[in-house]
Design brief:
This protein is of the alpha/beta class. 38% of the residues lie in helices and 19% in strands. The strands form two sheets. It has an eight-stranded mixed sheet. A three-stranded antiparallel sheet has the order 3-5-4. The chain is globular and about 60 Å long.
Length: 320
């Protein structure tokens, strides 16, 4: 069957303006994802097959199913798969990962040497590459031997979490992985992917640190299961949220972080007009956000990092 690029086919439902507003607002309320005025065709195209599967004749009927049907929970899981973006790979945004390894991890090791616990949350981890990358950098640092170390990865997509738990990846996940890192942290698999390319599994040492679970970041009960975190990565996730949902998530991150805990966002994201509850921490290669401590004095770890109290200050415009 030929896949259409634009518009509905003959006899297929068209997403009317009033239906679009209803679905757009419902998706925003439930998932936090915002579709702007220009995204009507995109939403129609993404959800079209669900009407066929459910035997519905209009997007208004689909709205009623999501809003009121006993099948709504099941259908939301299917809709979430179609409405979210899953692009990721290992060692993405390497400048930020260098800052994490070379500056933040020594700070955290110094600060936590009495407690000897390090918990990191990769929020919106997609198929797991980011969470596993964090685990690799922690092990590579050698600073946390004998500590309780946990990297928790969460995503809205149940299919992505299943892939993360498998921990087996093809070539597209390694586009910025060095041969040295690939040899150190991955194990060749006997099986191949559909195109015949070699697959690699994450090493047992890294897998032992990483745990995954499906989670909607707007679900307060679920987010509390993560516990208190020393670091939260939420990169290139909030750009898809509307302003109220973005604020809810940032407030939740602030509550989940320990005092002095650090929040890392994507290079195009900031807390400008979102929150004034964080300090802006200037690192050599990045700007990150820190939940203020009772004592905001810098540790003696030798880092060049400096602090600025932020009123929603923006991030640098670094790109990779």
């Amino acid at each position: 069957m030929t896949r259409r690029l634009f518009g509905a086919g003959v006899g297929e439902a068209v997403l009317r303006a009033d239906e679009y507003r209803l679905l757009r607002d419902l998706v925003s309320e439930r998932l936090g994802i915002w579709f702007g005025p220009e995204s009507r065709l995109s939403l129609e195209r993404r959800l079209r097959d669900r009407l066929t599967v459910r035997g519905l004749s209009s997007y208004g009927d689909y709205y009623q199913l999501l809003k009121y049907s006993p099948l709504a929970h099941e259908e939301w899981e299917e809709a979430a798969e179609l409405l979210t973006t899953h692009e990721t790979y290992f060692f993405r945004e390497d400048y930020q990962l260098r800052a994490f390894k070379n500056e933040l991890l020594p700070m955290l090791a110094e600060r936590g040497k009495q407690r000897r616990r390090l918990h990191v949350w990769s929020a919106g981890c997609s198929t797991g590459e980011e969470a596993y990358t964090i685990g690799m950098l922690i092990l590579e640092s050698g600073l946390f031997e004998g500590w309780e170390v946990r990297v928790y990865g969460s995503d809205l997509s149940k299919k992505c979490i299943a892939a993360a738990r498998r921990g087996v990846y093809g070539s597209t996940s390694f586009r910025t992985t060095t041969p040295e890192a690939k040899r150190a942290w991955f194990v060749p698999q006997a099986k191949q992917d559909a195109s015949g390319a070699e697959l690699f599994g994450v090493s047992p040492a890294v897998r032992a640190l990483c745990h995954f679970g499906q989670m909607n970041l707007l679900d307060e009960e679920r987010t509390h299961l993560v516990g208190r975190c020393d670091v939260i990565f939420c990169r290139n996730v909030l750009i898809y949220f509307d302003a109220p949902s973005r604020k809810r998530v940032i407030d939740m991150f602030h509550e989940r972080l320990v005092q002095g805990g650090v929040l890392l966002l994507g290079h195009a994201e900031s807390l400008l007009n979102v929150s004034t509850a964080f300090e802006l921490l200037h690192l050599k290669e990045d700007l990150v956000y820190r939940k203020p401590s009772v004592d905001t004095t810098q540790s003696s770890s030798g880092s060049q990092a400096t602090l600025a109290t932020t009123t929603g200050a923006g991030r640098s415009g670094q790109d990779t």
